[in-house]
Structures are given as C-alpha cells and as structure tokens.
C-alpha cells in the first residue's frame, strides 16, 4: 500500500497574541517513528494506512496495515465507536482501546486530524499494560519515544525486580542461617547426635500431642578407664563410634541424643512394645562390646540400658519419665552391667 513519505501535522494554539492556527508542520517517516513509535494513521473510512514500529511488534505477520481499524481494535472509550468521525468527536481526543484478540492489554490514545485530507493520527501508549506488553512482545527501550515516561517506568520495574530478587536471595540466606543456627543449638558437636535441649523439646512435644513413645537411657560401661588409660582423644573416638551405632539402630523419625559425657537417650516414636525395645537394647549392647580400633590398640567398652515407655507413665511429665528410665538403668548396673532392664509398670518417682 502506498503511503506518503511525509505527514503534515497541524499546530493549533490558543495563546494570546498568536494566530488561531499556524501552518502545518511536515514530518518525514523517520521523525514520526522517532517521536511516535506507537502511532497509527487512519484513512477517512477507518483503514490503517501506516503504523509505528512498536505496534508492528504486536503483529509481526503484518496483518495490521491495510486492515479496518475497527475490526482490529475495540474501543472502550468511546465505547462502541465504529467510525473515524466518532473518534474525532471525542472530547480532548482521548481514547481507550484494546486489540480484539488481546483483551487483557489496554492502550491509551490521542486522536488528531491530519490537515484537510480526512485522515487522522492516533498516538497510542500501553498505559497500565506496559509491563505486560514488554514481557509479551519483547519490547526494549528503542520501542519507545525518548521522552516517554515508560522508559523511566521500565527502569523502575527493572530496579524493583532486581531488588526483589536480591531480597529473596538474602531471605533465603537468612533462613538458611537460622535453620543452621537452630540445628546447631540442638546438636551435640562431637557426635552429631541431638543434645539435651533437643531431647527436652521432643519429649515435651510428644507429651503435649499425646504421641506414645518408648525411651532407652544408655550409660557406657568402662568409659572412664578408656579416658584414664588412653586419653580424651581415645574417649572422643569411642563416643563417635557409639553415635554411629545408635544412629544405625534408630529410624529417621526417632531421636538419638547425647545428654551427658557418656550418657545417651533414645526416643522411639509410636513404639511402646517393651519386647521390641528390649531387643533393640540387647542389640546395641552386643555392638558396643565389639572392640573399637584406635591406633595400635583396641578400646573396649560396654553399656547398661534402662527402658521405659509413655504407657508406663501416662500422667508423668518428661522429668519423671527420665527418672523412671534412670531407675531401670541403675537396676542394670546393679545386676552386673552390660544389660537392658525394663522399668516395671508403677515403678518410678511418681509411684
């Protein structure tokens, strides 16, 4: 379709002492594209004679040029307009419209007549749909006039997006640090098991939630001799070896905690069968009696265990449950060590 290389724009002024109308200013196509990359030129019957480079990005197949404007766009203001004369009759020439097949994207526009040809010029902008349009049509700063505030808005959106991204990363790092700090607060640094604080927290939660559990209190036998004979480094080696055994003998949902120098608590959630708990205790003791390699020697220990369950102490608090397990542990010590003893029902500090 043949289009003029220049467009005559009428300059109207109402300033005092100036003529009502000045001669039209002629703009070549390059200047018009630079000033109004979102423009449309319509014929008197509503055909699109020319469109700006940014509008072409919305329809890269080129089906806008030559099409009837009112078939491609739907007017929101003035609603239902179907002629160029109706567009020109709008007060202030302000329009609101959208592509009929893209109802989510809304344009703002201004319409002005072009000299006496009957043609009109529409200068459009994306309005509140700017960010969506940039994302959908891969627009860049080159698609907007240099004076268009959209450029500043895009910079703000980009800066905000970058700031939000950095804030998200910072929050993730802070959350990771908090989790690490909490984990450290509940972890015994030597063995990697839970510590007494973690054990107290778990016992309180289980009691509050009414979740049944079994509890084993393990105290190592002959550990003092290892420390006295071979030194604390050997003792640390023993404690770490014991921790590995306890982790192996517990499930993921259970708790293995070091609560003293050579004392450990095992909490088995939803396991109150004392026969099974006794088997676990016996198995742990057998594994503890296997000599632990240390340099050119072998370190020998054993263990004594006291067993109780929440069923043995239905109304007892965590402290009383631990005392009940202690009584069973001392019974194992008095009976010759290297054994597991179940606390009889009704035997405990609350009895």
Mean of pLDDT: 81
Structural class by helix and strand composition? alpha+beta
- Secondary structure: helix percent: 25-40%
What is the CATH class name of the largest domain? Alpha Beta
- The CATH architecture of the largest domain comes to 2-Layer Sandwich
Strand order of the largest sheet: 4-3-8-7-6-5
Broad shape: rod-shaped
- Helix and strand pattern: EEHEEHHEHEEEHHHEHHEEHEEEHE
Per the CATH scheme, the topology name of the largest domain is Alpha-Beta Plaits
Q: Oligomer, anyone?
A: single chain
Distance between the termini: 102 Å
Q: How many domains comprise the coordinates?
A: 2
How would a crystallographer describe the biggest sheet? 6 strands, antiparallel
Assess the beta-strand content as a share of residues.
15-25%
**Mind telling me the C-alpha Rg?**
41 Å
Unreliable stretches covering 5 or more consecutive residues: 11-16
The CATH superfamily of the largest domain is identified as Reverse transcriptase/Diguanylate cyclase domain
Strand runs, count: 15
Count of discrete alpha- or pi-helical segments spanning 4 or more residues: 11
């Amino acid at each position: 379709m043949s289009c003029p290389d220049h467009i005559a724009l009428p300059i109207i002024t109402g300033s005092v002492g100036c003529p009502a109308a000045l001669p039209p200013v002629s703009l070549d196509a390059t200047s018009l594209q630079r000033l109004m990359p979102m423009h449309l030129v319509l014929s008197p019957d509503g055909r699109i004679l020319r469109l700006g480079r940014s509008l072409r990005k919305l329809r890269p197949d080129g089906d806008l040029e030559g099409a009837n404007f009112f078939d491609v766009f739907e007017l929101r203001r003035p609603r239902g307009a179907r002629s160029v004369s109706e567009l020109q009759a709008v007060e202030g020439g302000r329009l609101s419209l959208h592509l009929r097949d893209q109802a989510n994207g809304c344009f703002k526009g201004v319409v002005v007549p072009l000299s006496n040809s009957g043609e009109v010029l529409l200068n459009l902008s994306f309005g509140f749909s700017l960010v969506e349009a940039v994302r959908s049509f891969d627009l860049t700063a080159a698609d907007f006039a240099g004076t268009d505030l959209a450029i500043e808005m895009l910079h703000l959106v980009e800066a905000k997006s970058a700031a939000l991204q950095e804030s998200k990363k910072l929050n993730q790092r802070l959350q990771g640090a908090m989790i690490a700090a909490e984990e450290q607060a509940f972890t015994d640094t030597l063995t990697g098991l839970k510590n007494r604080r973690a054990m107290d927290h778990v016992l309180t939660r289980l009691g509050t939630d009414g979740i049944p559990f079994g509890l084993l209190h393990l105290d190592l036998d002959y550990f003092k001799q290892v420390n006295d004979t071979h030194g604390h480094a050997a003792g640390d080696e023993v404690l770490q070896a014991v921790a590995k055994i306890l982790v192996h003998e517990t499930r993921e949902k259970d708790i293995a905690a070091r609560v003293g120098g050579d004392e450990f608590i095992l909490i088995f959630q939803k396991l109150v069968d004392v026969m099974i708990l006794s088997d676990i205790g016996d198995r742990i003791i057998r594994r503890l009696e296997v000599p632990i390699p240390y340099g050119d020697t072998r370190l020998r220990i054993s263990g004594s265990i006291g067993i109780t369950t929440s069923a043995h102490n239905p109304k007892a608090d965590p402290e009383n449950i631990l005392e009940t397990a202690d009584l069973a542990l001392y019974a194992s010590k008095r009976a010759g060590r290297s054994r597991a003893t179940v606390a009889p029902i009704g035997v405990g500090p609350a009895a």
